[in-house]
């Protein structure tokens, strides 16, 4: 699941529900043991609640989706570079495909890590030099010692990845927060557009504070200061507690519901839903909270008109995290752009409609090269 400001509240509510179910089960079993609650129904109810808390995913996941022909899995490359950064973070950069191929740098969204690009790596690396990297604090990249998780920091990290991509101009592909990083890169390093960077692909992303372009944006904007930001700061302080709550919601299966609601449209496979859920559980809540706070300060509206290279704007037709109107606005503002809609698809259309995604990327990259 991609962590965006609007679904952080949803995740938090389901985590509280998970704690409530486990706590309720333990309480009922204790009261039954103490003879305060008498009868087999109380014993059964307590056992069901307790067992569901640790094994509900084995029931809920098969009920939600059927297995597909090719399910995603963790796939890492043996060709790796570790990039130390001035702030103490170390970036994990991996390479797939022929060394002389057109280089494509894939920047993932906030929450998972670079293994989310499973299908893209398999479908594009036969003819392109596919380069993926883990954002700091996620996957195999270490977090910065100064706790800087701003979009500007990530854009400077991307510039370091571009520097080791080879002699050919690169195509920058960014999903969700990765697209925001690409736009900030364009503002910070405009001299690289057209020389080191041949084009951009912006996937299910936005040009401004994402609370302004998500579903129920008016409500989320009103809740940003009084509710969302305090919860994010609380998560930073109590991150071990929130991580335990996250894993509890993963084990009982409720995490898959939030992943389904925020990222998919119902055509995803069981393996895709399970993989996205597991990746979202692996990320440290403290890191995720800091990055989400960084997104709340994001605004590259004025940058759009200055981007002088070809841009492909791609969006799932039913994306609720960054509604298609955000892609429409970017398409209108970018001087050299085209628009592709993935149907049916939500925020995770790059997995749900992975072949459509790969075909669109291939066509665009062929035109740029």
Give structural notes.
- The protein is α/β, with parallel strands linked by helices and 369 residues long.
- It has one domain (1-369): Alpha/Beta hydrolase fold, catalytic domain (Rossmann fold), CATH 3.40.50.
- 50% of the residues lie in helices and 13% in strands.
- It contains 14 helices and eight strands.
- The chain has helices spanning 5-33, 40-55, 57-64, 118-124, 151-163, 177-188, 217-237, 239-252, 254-263, 270-282, 285-295, 324-333, 349-352, 354-368; strands at residues 80-84, 90-96, 102-107, 128-133, 170-175, 197-203, 311-316, 337-342.
- Strands 1-2-4-3-5-6-7-8 form an eight-stranded mixed β-sheet, sandwiched between helices.
- Strand 7 (311-316), helix 12 (324-333) and strand 8 form a beta-alpha-beta unit.
- Helix 1 packs antiparallel against helix 2 (40-55), helix 1 packs across helix 8 and helix 2 crosses helix 8.
- The radius of gyration is 21 Å and the shape is globular.
Strand content: 5-15%
Q: How many domains comprise the coordinates? A: 1
What is the CA–CA distance across the termini? 32 Å
- Going by CATH, what is the homologous superfamily? Alpha/Beta hydrolase fold, catalytic domain
The number of strands is 8
Layout of secondary structure:
Blueprint: H1 5-33, H2 40-55, H3 57-64, E1 80-84, E2 90-96, E3 102-107, H4 118-124, E4 128-133, H5 151-163, E5 170-175, H6 177-188, E6 197-203, H7 217-237, H8 239-252, H9 254-263, H10 270-282, H11 285-295, E7 311-316, H12 324-333, E8 337-342, H13 349-352, H14 354-368
Parallel strand pairs: 3-4, 3-5, 5-6, 6-7, 7-8
Antiparallel strand pairs: 1-2, 2-4
Helix pairs in contact: 1-2, 1-7, 1-8, 1-9, 2-8, 4-14, 5-6, 7-11, 8-10, 9-10
